[in-house]
Specification:
Layout (H helix, E strand, L loop, with lengths): L1 H29 L17 E7 L3 E8 L12 E2 L2 E7 L4 E2 L31 E8 L4 H9 L4 E5 L5 E4 L8 E3 L10 E4 L2 E9 L2 E8 L6 H13 L2 E6 L6
Parallel strand pairs: 1-3
Antiparallel strand pairs: 1-2, 2-13, 4-5, 4-6, 6-12, 7-8, 8-9, 10-11, 11-12
Length: 243
């Protein structure tokens, strides 16, 4: 009897260790899109922070209120490969100011009929934004490449369609049919929808929001780009070379 209980205990311990390893793997696999939980820190500070992202082509300079920055290492500013922000729908106020009117960008309008964030809805109204120093409207180039392999298969909303790569287990993309170079956007959706686009010529964006708000995608995209462009100080070509 004791030997059997000992065996069951060992199995439970091994299963628990495996569960911890799986959770750790899932956390790390999400880290490239957004900082890992242990690296996230929020502030109520209204201090403006200078952040930079430099590539082989140019240097991006942003000035962002500290309250929007969700990555602890970026609270002091400086050079970073990607800049991580978090805001709340419907008016893109900081998470730490969810009970107040947006103190930084009052001109940002409420999006659609999304209600103001409360303690109960804060999880569903989050927008996770990643800013990168990008190529000249790189999202358009990438999407044009996808269209050579992916085919339209179904309508998702009134103006969005599902694109699938035949005979492939790769994830599907959701996108509008008609796009122009400066406003190309495409989504990968599960519980959250991740949008890939550009806010301006050399500013590449990835942002995520709850799939329940996908019907408001056009308004969300317009306001997120306006939101990000408010923080862009300059994009300076290196050695006067631009792609």
């Amino acid at each position: 009897m004791l030997r059997a209980l000992k065996g069951i205990t060992i199995v439970i311990i091994i299963a628990f260790i495996l569960l911890l390893l799986i959770l750790k793997y899932l956390e790390n696999s999400f880290c490239p899109l957004f900082p890992c939980s242990k690296e996230i820190s929020y502030s109520k500070s209204e201090k403006i922070v200078d952040l930079y992202s430099t590539s082989l082509v140019n240097r991006l300079h942003l000035r962002i209120p500290k309250a929007y920055l969700s990555y602890r290492k970026q609270h002091q500013g400086g050079e970073h490969e990607s800049i991580y922000l978090e805001a709340l729908l419907p008016d893109l106020r900081p998470k730490t100011h969810f009970l107040k009117r947006n103190p930084f960008l009052p001109e940002i309008k409420n999006i659609g009929s999304i209600p103001q964030t409360t303690k109960e809805t804060i999880k569903d109204n989050r927008v996770y934004i990643t800013i990168n120093n990008g190529l000249n409207y790189g999202s358009s180039r990438i999407w044009q490449g996808y269209l050579k392999e992916y085919k339209k298969v179904a309508r998702v909303t009134e103006d969005l369609y599902l694109f699938h790569k035949p005979n492939s287990k790769m994830w599907d993309w959701i996108a509008p049919l008609k796009q122009d170079t400066r406003n190309t956007i495409y989504f990968n959706c599960s519980v959250l929808c991740e949008a890939r686009t550009d806010s301006q010529k050399h500013v590449s964006l990835k942002y995520m929001f709850h799939r329940k708000h996908l019907k408001y995608w056009a308004e969300i995209d317009k306001q997120v780009k306006k939101f990000v462009n408010n923080f862009v100080v300059s994009v300076i070509p290196i050695n006067n070379y631009e792609r």
